[in-house]
């Protein structure tokens, strides 16, 4: 079957078009990943879905195809942590230090991604060493050049496609738990539904800074996701009561200085510990979010000890 058959499903016209089933979406994406689809058909399929909005079944099907296409390249980790934010409004990647705290608690983290149109200050790759020994980072272009090419169709279309969401759902290490950040709040529920279809058990999704998994410490953070396969929606109270953006324009945060104690930034530290707390709770390191907040603060206070602390 050619990809044209799937374009017909989604684009027949009013009253005739429909969303793809999960199995249809998986077959369509398999054709794309195997380079068996005309580029015009790929563009048509993705942009029609962009116009009318993708469904959980379609995201799950596309993700299942990507998982099958890229298998066995990464060792299994405790936590999957995608990083695909783009844009010049991002500030320093404080979530890397949050991931380091999670690693200090004895968990392994698989981080993977690609971050375009970012300043040097916001670069994940330039600061990845700060994530510590328990975090493994995999660059998308090396992990799957084909997936990288699909993501970069944004430059051709001038618009993002649902493949951005698929990459967040990917979980290439097969981790039992995953955390995800989104830019648009409506995707939190969509991704939770897709994860359920894929058999994911434990997942936390938040609206994060620039689309990264990064908690704003001065706002209520609503968490969507799954616990033991059941849907959850809960919220965390603000840690601080500052009225400000997560990343201020022109703000220069010294990540090395923060970690090594040469710099102190109350807001940045609350961002780090607050983000780590949700990840720890996702991993079931603590029974409650309040307990996770306490654990994250303890890990921060003990961060200069050998990186072998246990939750």
Question: Can you describe what's shown?
Answer:
The protein contains 13 helices and seven strands. It is α/β, with parallel strands linked by helices. α2 (22-33) packs across α4 (56-69), α4 crosses α9 and α4 packs across α10.
Secondary-structure topology with pairs:
Elements: H1 4-11, H2 22-33, H3 39-52, H4 56-69, E1 79-83, H5 95-104, E2 109-113, E3 135-139, H6 140-143, H7 145-151, H8 154-157, H9 163-169, E4 177-182, H10 187-197, E5 202-207, E6 221-227, E7 230-236, H11 255-260, H12 266-282, H13 289-301
Parallel strand pairs: 1-2, 1-4, 2-3, 4-5
Antiparallel strand pairs: 5-6, 6-7
Individual helix count: 13
Radius of gyration, CA atoms, in whole angstroms: 19 Å
Number of strands: 7
Instruction: Encode the helix/strand succession as letters.
Output: HHHHEHEEHHHHEHEEEHHH
| Regions with little confidence, pLDDT below 50 for 5+ residues | none
Mean pLDDT across every amino acid position: 93
The proportion of strand residues reads 5-15%
How far do the termini sit from each other? 51 Å
Write down the overall geometry.
globular
Largest sheet: 7 strands, mixed
Side by side, the strands of the main sheet go: 3-2-1-4-5-6-7
Name the structural class.
alpha/beta
Helix content: 40-55%
């Amino acid at each position: 079957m050619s990809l044209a058959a799937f374009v017909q499903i989604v684009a027949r016209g009013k009253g005739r078009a429909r969303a793809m089933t999960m199995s249809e979406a998986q077959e369509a994406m398999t054709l794309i990943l195997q380079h068996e689809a005309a580029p015009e058909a790929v563009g048509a399929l993705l942009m029609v879905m962009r116009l009318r909005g993708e469904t959980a079944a379609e995201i799950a099907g596309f993700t299942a195809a990507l998982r099958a296409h890229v298998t066995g390249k990464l060792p299994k980790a405790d936590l999957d942590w995608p990083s695909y934010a783009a844009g010049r409004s991002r500030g320093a990647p404080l979530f890397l230090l949050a991931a380091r705290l999670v690693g200090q608690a004895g968990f392994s983290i698989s981080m993977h991604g690609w971050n375009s149109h970012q300043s040097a200050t916001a670069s994940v790759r330039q600061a990845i060493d700060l994530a510590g020994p328990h975090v493994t980072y995999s660059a998308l272009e090396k992990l799957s050049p084909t997936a990288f090419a699909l993501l970069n169709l944004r430059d051709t279309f001038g618009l993002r496609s649902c493949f951005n969401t698929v990459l967040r759902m990917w979980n290439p290490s097969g981790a039992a738990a995953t955390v995800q950040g989104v830019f648009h709040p409506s995707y939190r529920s969509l991704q939770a539904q897709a994860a359920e279809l894929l058999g994911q058990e434990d997942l936390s999704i938040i609206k994060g800074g620039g689309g990264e998994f990064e908690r704003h410490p001065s706002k209520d953070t609503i968490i969507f996701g799954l616990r033991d396969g059941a849907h959850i929606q809960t919220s965390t109270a603000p840690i601080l009561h500052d009225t400000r953006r997560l990343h201020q324009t022109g703000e220069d945060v010294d990540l090395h200085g923060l970690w090594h104690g040469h710099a102190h930034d109350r807001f940045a530290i609350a961002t780090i510990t607050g983000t780590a707390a949700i990840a720890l709770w996702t991993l079931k390191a603590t029974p409650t979010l309040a307990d996770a907040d306490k654990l994250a603060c303890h890990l921060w206070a003990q961060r200069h000890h050998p990186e072998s602390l246990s939750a």
